[in-house]
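Researcher: Sequence of Coiled-coil domain containing 9 follows. Predict its structure.
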Amino acid sequence: MATTLDLKSKEEKDAELDKRIEALRRKNEALIRRYQEIEEDRKKA
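Model: Prediction complete. Tokens:
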């Protein structure tokens, strides 16, 4: 019985981690995109 509970909680933790990683990745991509746009503007100026 304990093993099934452990497995479930591990899967839930993994899902939570995946969500956090995905959120961080999106945030990171947005930051990189903005940085690249700023760099291009500097080259044009």
